[in-house]
Task: structure prediction
Amino acid sequence: MNRRGQHHYVRVCVTGTRVPVYTCYGETLFVGSFSFCTLFFNFCLFCTSTQQQRCTTYNNTPPILYRATEQGSDRETVRTTVGHLLKSRVRVSVVFHGSMHATFARQAIAHSRSTLGTQYQHVPKVELHRHLEGSVRLTTVLDEAIKHNISLPHGPLGEMTPASQLTLEGIRPHIQSLTPFPNLETLLNIFDYTQSTFHNIDVFHRIAKEAVLDAHEEGIRCLELRYAPCFASMPPNQHAFEDVLDAIEDGIDDAQLMLGGPDSIGVGLLCIGVGAMGTEAMDRTTDFYLQHQDKFVGFDMAGAETNVLEHLKCFQRVKDAGGKITCHASEDLDIGVPENALNAVKHLHAERIGHGIQIISDRQVMDVMRDRHIMLEVSVSSNWLTAGVASIEAHPARNLWTHGIPICPNTDDPGIMGIDLNHEWHLWRHTLGFSENDMTAMTLLALDKSFLPFDARERLHNMYFSDLAKQQDKERNNTFAASVAWANAHHQSQIV
Ligand code: HPA
Ligand code: ZN
Result:
C-alpha cells in the first residue's frame, strides 16, 4: 500500500516456457512468450500484496521490447526482475483497471507522438510549460472512452461514434491537432473531447502519472506541469476541485516513486485560472489556489486570450500571498497584442510569460522583457498549430533571444499536438538555427527561472545539469550559481 492506503499493482505475466524472455509491453511485463501466457501476478509496488489471475487475453506475440538474461520465472525471480526493470528505468506502468486496452499503452509513445529529435533524449532537459490536459496519451483517451462507454468523433467525417467502434487511427485526427488551426480558440475546442473522457476521478491519477513517466522518458529532469481546475471539473464530469488535485498529486508521487524517488524528476504543479470563463470562475480558482498554495509552485492564466487587466484583482491576491506568477499572454496573432504581456508583467506581477511571441512587433515591449529578465516560455509547434506564426521557419524565437530576452523551449500540449520536447529541440536546433551552447544556456536559465523551490533546483542541478556548461567552461566550479552565470554570459554574447 502507498501512504494513502492504496495498492498499486504492476502486472506481471508468467508463462510456461523455460527460456526467460522479459517483455515490457503496454502496462504488462511478460516473462516468457505471449503465446504461452497462462498466469498473471499483480505485485503491489509498495507492499508485499500479490494477486494471481488467469490470462485469457493475449494470444499473439507482439514485438519484444525488453530482454533480460536472468534465469527462472518463479515468483521471486519475477519480483526481483520488476525491481531491476524499475531501477534500470525500463517503464513498467502500474495497472489500475486491468483493462485489455492497456496493451496499447506502450505503443502510445511510439505511435502517437513524433519521433523527431530522439538524439536529444539523453540530454537532461527542463520544461516549464506543459499542460496536463494537453499531455494525455492518445491511447489513454481511447482506453478511458472504451472503459466508460464515451462516444468520440471518428473516421474521415468525424461522426460521434459509440465507444465499442472506436479505433486509435479513427480518433487521431479529431483528438490531435497535427496541422494548423485557424487560431488559438479553435484549437482549444478540441480539448473538449479529451476532457470528456475524464469521467472517473482515477483518470486524473492516471494522466498525471503517465505525464511524468513520459516526461522522464523524454529526458526531462525538471518539469512544471499545469492544469486548470475549471477545465478538469467541467460538465458532464463536474468533479470536486479537491478530489482532482488529490488524484493528480498521487499520480505524480507514484510516478516519481516508480522512477526511484522525488529527485528522479523534479515536478512542480501550477494552477491555471481560465480568464475567458469570466471573473466568477477566476475568483473560484484563485480561492482554490490560495487554500492549497502549498501544493502548487505557481499560478497562471490561460484559455482563449483576454485582456489580462480584467483579472488584476485575482493576481494581486496571489501576489499578496507570496505566489509565483506566470501568465499566457501575447500568444494569439489577432488578439494577443504585445500590451497583454507588458500588462501581465507590470500589473499582474508575472515573472514569466507563457508564449509572449507577439511582442516581436513592439520593440519597446521587447526592451522591457529584456531589462526585467522576464523568461518567455516558448512553444514553437504550438504557435504554428494555433496560427500564431505563419510557419516554423518564421518563428521569432531567434530574434527574441538575440535581443537579450531569456527564452526556453516547451511543448505546451504534447498529447494534443503529437510531439515531445525532443521534437521541439530538433526544430530549435535544425530549423531555427540555435547552437548546442544556446540550448545548454536556455536549459540552465529555465532551471534558474523555474518556480520549484531553490533547494530542489539545486539538487537537480547537481544530479543532472552540472556537467552541461562545465563542458564549455572547464575553469569554473560546478555550482548552480556558476552554471547560471555561464548561461547568462553565453546569452549576452549572442545579443546583436
Ligand atoms: N494557450 C492557452 N490555453 C491553453 C494552451 C495555450 O497554448 N494550451 C492549453 N491551454
Ligand atoms: Zn499553454
In short: The radius of gyration is 23 Å.
